[in-house]
Design brief:
8 helices; 35% helix; alpha+beta; homotetramer; seven-stranded mixed sheet
Chain lengths: 249, 249, 249, 249
């Protein structure tokens, strides 16, 4: 029995749904993971035990502390790279959701000087300036490229600084959101943003990114309106689960 | 109860089917929208309330006026960017159908000087000369890039001029058709047209677009023949709905 | 009642299956068509009436003469571009099967000087030298780009000469096979062959095509062996139809 | 009755599952094949008779000797290119699993000087230095490009040397793994690794491959842990077969 038993069903359901959405959209496959800060204790976070995101159920969600440990559960049951989440949540109190992904379309930007920055409105959270690239080799020399301890997680978090995304050389990326839905919107747009940039650069052309001013504009729509809930309804439909109008962040 | 109750079932069914086709073909996803001029009152148009196109049903179709309002319905129930449709229908009496899409393959042309023009017969409606690109920043400075009022819709419509398509920088495109089926044929060909251009330009080669003369030739086929209805039958089959021979525009 | 009633069930079933395979593999969509020479009368050919290939059934197959006519059937019931098939069958007695396709990946080669030639063993029938490109504008000026009469079909066939494939500028391609299975094998490899060439040329590199000697080598495998029938079994499985071992050309 | 009757059900089930996974992931289609060294007799190997991988069942698995023969079975029942497997198993005692694939994304590297080397952690087994390319024409002149006898298989194996992968000009690749799961992990990452390299090179940029030190680091995770079994669970789910926790290599 874990501490998640005291967390409202709505919050758990959203995290499970987020796992399934990210698999559906191809942002996660057998690997990668998504987490949210614990609404009952902001010094911990919620994430599945080591299962593929599209298979995760509410029973898999565990409360992780900021060292990446789960009370009463052996390390081998957990995601090996949970330290990414622990380090980012610890360093940045305003972050409510974190993801680690190996989405293919982002990888080219991690092994070259190609700039990854927002070029269409759906990806505005990526930011106007090119995202930082963290190379694990810089601090840790030759490794298997995985983030397997807190020192590596903290190094990554420092490279990320106050950005929403940090690329990981030859590996993938980590991203953080002010809310879970913000994170979902950003990361499902990230592969598309990558392909648009590549399609321009492959032609030897120059991209026009969003401006700093455009990126700074925050959407003030009431998130309970039909217009805002529409994205959830779309995902529920594609996943074959019942949509509960107004029942999502 | 809305004014759509007086509109023939065939017209409503076609608009709903168009929504589903555009989702099936990947032209629309959770966002974007398609509309037709109101056959009962050409100073208004029919479009869904704010729902994802693949989920739209006949009950969702509402009569919008040329200010983007719907009698008796709160704005929050409507598409935020309905002003795109209102402005184009108001400015161009010959237009019977309008779409706004964020299809990925067109985006590269909106953030660069890559020319978007018809290169194969299926996309001839796109036109022989490169499509105009509208940059919301030119008239409105930094925004969230969405078309959220009539002034922005009218600015877009002016940039579109008498063309069938206008690209929207960092956002997507709007397109207009002389009939709904014309619009469907054009916009399902648009992503393909984009990829063909990109595949040539990525190789550092020059494209041979359709000529102005080729684009000007209008198809005079009887639209009730099997050859013309075949496209509808194909889409009905893929959507799993019953095809009614001869029952489509 | 048509003359196809005297044609063996096996031959009709193969042509219907070929239609479905070509839709499954994305070589044909709502448009495009495939035909075989009439085994009972080599001065005619079998092809569906105007239906989308994935929907074609045995009842749709009609005997077409070399003017593109079908006895007792109005022209509007037939494919508009049936003249492609009529002209190629008339000009080339050794051809047993013909296809017309608009597959996207081949289109870039039709609107540029990019060379389309065989670069992997599965596409060897394409030939070692670049395929000819036919531009309808050369003989017929501005048109809707469709092949709508025998003069246009014959012009295309002359440009094709003795090759297995001819590209059609801004439109697609026509291809011919010594047998139906040969044609299927070639045309399902054609989009793949296109992408491989593009992936090399996009990097500014030079392709190594198959040699003339490699292309000239004919496969002498017994087509009734399991190794040869395996492709049919694969396609039947994917189409959800029962495979009849040894029952295919 | 074949010698496979004495092989444990688990080993046979894994090989069948590997066939289905490789079809699911698009590494194999109607053609290509995967094999494992015979656990009961390391001088032979297990592979299906000539069937498409997604259709292979346990009854299809046959014991092949290092000349590519199967006791009591006619050659026409077997994969034509089984000599690839025979030659590699014979030359390299440490290899436990072999695959031959025509995956499209790798083909560009086989017909050009584009370098195929590991650029992300999931493909580390590919190696830090560019993979060798074997051109059958060098030793055998013009052929149909297939590996149809032991001399050709041995030539390929020599070109492969001690690498995990060898590209085959205009044809595909062969790869070898220290275990079946190692091979599966590598080859499902290979098309992704190819696309990442191409996306960088298409932009005229230079790739940063994994270092020799990174490639040399071996994963020492206990393969029976949930973290390691997770990949199998993912594949079982996608294939619709029951996952047996801990029941896979």
């Amino acid at each position: 029995m874990t501490a998640t038993k005291t967390i409202t069903h709505t919050r758990l359901r959203e995290l499970v749904l987020a796992n399934h959405i990210l698999a559906l959209e191809g942002v996660l496959d057998a690997y990668g993971h998504v987490s949210v800060r614990n609404p009952n204790d902001p010094t911990s976070f919620l994430m599945s035990r080591s299962r593929s995101p599209e298979i995760v159920s509410e029973d898999d969600i565990l409360v992780h502390d900021f060292s990446g440990n789960v009370d009463g559960i052996a390390a081998k049951e957990l995601y090996r790279e949970r330290f990414i989440h622990a380090a980012i949540f610890a360093a940045r109190p305003a972050v409510q959701a974190v993801i680690h992904s190996h989405a293919d379309d982002v990888l080219p930007f991690s092994i070259s000087t190609l700039p990854f920055q927002a070029v269409f409105h759906g990806a505005s959270q990526v930011g106007a300036a090119p995202a930082p690239v963290w190379d694990i080799r810089h601090d840790f020399g030759d490794t298997n490229l995985l983030v397997e301890n807190m020192a590596q997680g903290e190094s990554l978090s420092r490279a990320m600084d106050d950005r929403t995304i940090v690329l990981m050389r030859g590996h993938g990326f980590a991203a953080a959101g002010a809310t879970l839905i913000n994170l979902l919107k950003m990361v499902t747009a990230i592969p598309r943003n990558a392909r648009v940039i590549l399609d321009v650069l492959h032609a030897g052309e120059t991209i026009v990114p969003l401006s700093a001013g455009e990126v700074a504009i925050r959407d003030t729509t009431d998130m309970t309106t039909p217009a805002a809930q529409r994205q959830w309804e779309f995902w529920c439909r594609r996943l074959g689960v019942t949509f509960e109008p107004g029942g999502y962040l």
